[in-house]
Amino acid sequence: MRISAVYPGTFDPVTYGHVDLIKRGAAIFDHLYVAVLKNTDKLPLFTVEERVEMLEEVVRAFRNVSVTTFCGLLVDYAEKVGASVIVRGIRAVSDYEYELQMAMMNRRLSARVETVFMMPAEAYSYLSSRLVKEISLLGGSVKGLVPPGVEKRLKKKHLGA
Ligand code: PNS
User: Fold this and answer.
1) Whose CA is nearest to atom 14 of ligand 1?
2) Pick from 81, 75, 87, 80: which is nearest to 113 by CA?
3) Does the Cβ of 105 fall within 6 Å of ligand 1?
4) pTM value?
5) Residue 146: inside a domain
6) For residue 93, is it within any domain?
7) Is 161 within a domain?
8) Among 7, 15, 111, 160, which one is most buried in terms of CB atoms within 10 A?
9) What CATH number has the domain bearing residue 65?
């Protein structure tokens, strides 16, 4: 049986932590949909199109990964594309509470979709898009935390460079 999974998120912007999870997800599932949420109540730095472009640069290396967008309920999207798994990354215990709540709610919304938690490499356990944006905004280096293309775009956004 072929198993497809959705890896949803804001990806504002994609970090090496996300890339690590994409790599792990791609090794387990037959197909992985990296799905960018369109209707977020967060105020993103990058547009949906920019976020998709950055992700596409990253997933080029994987033949069984595609980048998509979704709006509305995640479980509806998962069912629409025939995915039976939602992949979420857990870095530390502090992530767990929110993730558990979402997983349980998603299970209530659809019993056909199972959430699978994955841990990124230890080196990325303290990495987040929020911190990356903050460091970049304040002129710090994000080298080694995000792919080079993302690094360039962050500089452009913050310094106009
Ligand atoms: O990267 P993020 O911001 O932690 O991702 C959050 C995301 C996109 C996974 C979550 O906000 C989501 O699934 N939104 C879609 C709306 C939805 O299905 N809400 C009910 C979830 S219990």
Assistant:
1) 74
2) 75
3) yes
4) 0.97
5) no
6) yes
7) no
8) 7
9) 3.40.50.620
Active site residue 129: yes
| DSSP-assigned letters across all residues of 67-81 | EEEE-S-HHHHHHHH
Q: Produce one character per residue of 34-51: b if its CB has 16 or more CB atoms within 10 Å, e if not.
A: bbbbeeeeeebbbebebb
Q: Say if residues 155 and 19 touch (Cβ distance below 8 Å).
A: no
Q: Give the pLDDT confidence of 1-12 residue by residue, as tens digits.
A: 999 999 999 999
Q: What is the pLDDT of residues 58-98, one digit of tens each?
A: 999 999 999 999 999 999 999 999 999 999 999 999 999 99
What is the number of domains present in the chain?
1
CA separation for the pair 29, 85 (Å, rounded): 9
Q: Which residue has a Cα nearest atom 6 of ligand 1?
A: 9
Residue 157 lies in a domain: no
Q: Can you tell me whether residue 24 is helix, strand or coil?
A: helix
Strand partners, 66: 33
